[in-house]
Structure formats: structure tokens, C-alpha cells
Amino acid sequence: GELPADHDIITEGKASIIFPKANQVFYNKVQVFNRDLSILAISCFAEIYKKEKEAKELKKKERFLARQEKLAEEAKAKGETYSGPPVREYEFPGVTIFEALSASGLRSIRYWKEIPHVQSILVNDLDPQAVDCITKNLQFNKLPLDLVKPNQGDANVVMMQHAVESKMFDVIDLDPYGTASVFLHAALAGVEEGGLLCITCTDKAVLCGNNSETCYGKYGSMPLRGAFCHEQALRILLSLAERTANVHRRFIVPLVSMSIDFYIRVFVRVFTSPAEVKRAASKQAMVFQCVGCGSLAAAAMGKIKEEGKSVKFTPGMAPSIDEQCRECGRHSKMGGPLYCGKIHDKHFVSLLLEKLNQDKTRFASYGRINGLLTVIQEELDTLLSYDVAPMCHTLKCTTPPANQVRSALLNAGYLVSQTHTNPKGIKTNAPVCVLWDILRCHVAANPLKKPPNPASPAFNILQKEIQLTADFTHRKESETSVKKTGVAKFLMNPGANWGPGTRAGNPAQKRRGSMHDELAARQRENQGKKKRKKEDAEGKAQQEEEEQKQEPPSL
Fold this sequence. Notes:
The structure is a single chain. By secondary structure, the protein is of the alpha/beta class. The chain has helices at residues 32-77, 106-114, 128-140, 155-164, 184-190, 204-207, 212-219, 229-247, 274-277, 346-356, 366-378, 388-395, 402-411, 432-445, 457-463, 482-485, 507-512, 515-526, 529-550, and strands spanning 7-12, 15-20, 95-99, 118-125, 148-152, 169-174, 191-201, 250-260, 263-272, 284-290, 296-300, 302-307, 310-315, 332-339, 386-387, 416-419, 422-428. Mean pLDDT is 89; it is low at 507-513.
């Protein structure tokens, strides 16, 4: 297509879009990683979905042929000839995709060009300017508008309408600016049986414990603050998705859940099963955090007791914590509910890594995707994680090397892994008392510079007798650096101000400029502020002194 005079060309993957120079439509280059990851995940899902559909149709074909054979034998016994209908060969039509909030249409164009087995895409946005931009970009890329269709409409209305008409989508992609919670009811109703729901939320600060009342209002969960907060953000979103699906007699199966920069992205499959919905309460947990030392405890909201064919569902049991923390003597605060089931399907993650490494030049963000997926593949399926540095801050002691702590846990017979949500985080099946014992042993070998305050949590923690003597002998499995593993797992952001950008359609914000422009302006304004203030004060004093010298003597 031709490029209008007031537009620029942006190329990403196999797509090239024309973009207004005035930037009336939202585009964020930071989300290249998100789009690359989504193409990879939907490609793998489409292959799995295709095989499942073909296996289902094959069973239908076998039953049909068995019936035909039986009817032919019955006809032959009567001396008749039976000629039944021909066998219909099944051909997978491809997946149908709904992009709820498309903006420029770039994501859908890449989906059509880069994902195999796509039947059609409905490219939706509520903003008329955005839909006009989408149409121009589809035409610029010479895409068939009857298969990749631009649509102006409320995303919730479109999804519910398709659900009512039984024209559900195989894949629904929700990538809003802010929370996706307002779209979940319609999305979970509008996705096909066994279909894929891709969800992004960019209000990560809310999910991580800032403005807990806002988080409860949006997600129905109370967040806690701590080094585990990014995993908590994922589990809060999955908790809401599961509870919302249960309303529709459905449940979710998380395939991969990622905390990335300023947002979270989850890929879940959706199935219908009233029997499985009865197990939903056992996948929700309340979490208790000590206000003194940060120790965590959790309790599932439901309990399942199975004896043979008998299955009983009862309320969950309270966690085995005292009114005062056993480690430091402080009280605990409560958060949740969080999704306490598995947040990754390790088989699906291995398929993602396999497909990713078939062509390392396919995605611009290959290195980062490979690193994070590698960490996720090794991640333990435990609820939340710990960071040794804040624990050492509580004790006012030096922080031991991370591989030393991992070695001590391995030598004690426990499992340990990194977590993709925090480069310094530790996931382990060891109880928290074992971690405190390891740090007590570390303090014994590296005494504090001064004794702790008797009123501090550190005093009570260090007063406790060591139950498990830590063995810090180095274990090869504890090494996680790129030199040892050959995989760079946590890569730096490729540019400054790597954030969510400015919401489209906000004239006041456009007049002010982006949040990053404002931040840069304030930084320039404050650069050398103290020095200027000192120089101004010295200049003023010198001026006053000179004025006094010039004044005539009083009579």
C-alpha cells in the first residue's frame, strides 16, 4: 500500500504498519516481547488444538465405519445390498482469534502472517480513530478483509454476542491499558471449549500491594507486600479468572504465567465441567505474613477427601500458626485469596522452548524469551518465594551468597530453584524455619557488629536454638550464572524508561507529554539543585557585603 504524508512506517516481525505522526492511536514498542511471546504461545496451542480436534474426529470416523459395517452385514444376511453415506474426511479449519483491544492492528497482522493454522481474526477496538488506523494497516499489508476483519465495538458486547450465538472464539487476546478484570466475564463466556485465553494486566503496582483497597475492588483479593509480590500478582489474576470461570461452570488450566517488566501476562485454557468446578475451592488459598520477619503461611479455602469412588468436599483448615509468630513473636496479617494451583504447564513450556529454538532469528526478543522460559521450566511448583536479602536486613547481618544458601538447602535434603519473578528469589519446599536456621548458622559464623535491640524481631529470631545445622558445602546444582548454565536468564531492558507509555486518547496528557518526558524534565531541573542553592546563598551574601561597603558612613 501507499504511505500517507502524515504517517510513518513501523516494522515489527513480518508486519509493517503505517502510524500517525501525531500518535493519536496507542503504540508501545516495549510490548514487542509480549507480541513475540504471544505468537509463540498461540502457535504451540494451535498445533495442540489441531491434534485434539483430529483425534476427536478420528474417533467419530471409527464409530461411523463400525456402524456402517454392522448395517452392511445385516443387509447381507437379508440378501440385500447396503450402500451408506460416504465417509466425510475431516480437515482442520484453523483457529479463530479475537483481539479485543487492537489499537493499531499490529498484533493481529503479525498473528495472521506468523501463526500457522489461523482461520480468521476479528480485530476490534472501541475508538473510531483506532478502527480507521486498523483498516488502513490491514490494507497496507494486503490482508483479506473478509478473514482479518476490522470491527468497532465494545469488547464485552462482542464477546457476549458471539457466546449467545454459539460462535465462540478459539483464542481471545485481552491486552488492555490497565486491568483486564472488567473483560473476564465476557471472555470466559465467549471462548470456545478448550480454547485459549491470553490476558495482560499493566496495573502491576496495584497487584503488588500498592493501594490494597484498589486491588480488592478490581480483583477481589487483598495483596501483601514483599519480595514475592510479582508472583502474587500472577496468582491474584489467576484466582479471579478461576472464580469468574466457575460462575459459568467452567475452570481454567494455566499453561504459562509470566511477570514481565511493568505487566503480567498469562495464557490459560478454558474447559467446562461442573464436577471439576467443585474442586475450585481447593485451588484458592489465604496467605498469612508475619509483620516482623515476613514469614509466610498459607491455607487452602477448600479440602478434598477421596476414598475410592467417594469424594467429599469440605472447608479448608486454618494454617498451623500461633497468635504470635514462632520465629519473632510478632502477629500476622492476611492476604488473598490467591490461586494456589500450578501456574505453569511444564510440558507446554518445553514445547515453547523447542519451537523457539527451531529458528533463533525468528523473534527480535529471542534471548529474553529463552532466558525466562528456561527459568520457568526449572521453577518449583511451590506457593510464593523468599528473598534472603530482606531476611538478612531483618537480622541486621551480612547477606550470604545466593548459591551458598541454595547449597545449604540442597544439603539438607530439600528442593530449591530460582523464580522468574525475582532474580534474587528462592523457591523451595523447605519450611521457613529451615531458612531461618540457615541464617542463624550464617550469623554464628559471621557475628553481628553490635547486638540486636531486645525489642527487635532479630533479637527473638537469634535467641532461638538452631534445630538444623546448615551444611554450606558447595553443590554444583546451586550454580545459576550464565557461565555455568550457558543461558542468560535475566537480561537487561533494551532502553531507558522501559514502561507502559501514555494511554491513547488523553489530550491533557498529550499536552503535558509522556510520563517519561515529565520525569526527564524534573531530573534536568533538579540536577545540581543543592549546588545551585549553595552558590545562590554565597552570591547573595557577597552582594550584601559589597552593598554594606558602598553605603556612606552614618553621621
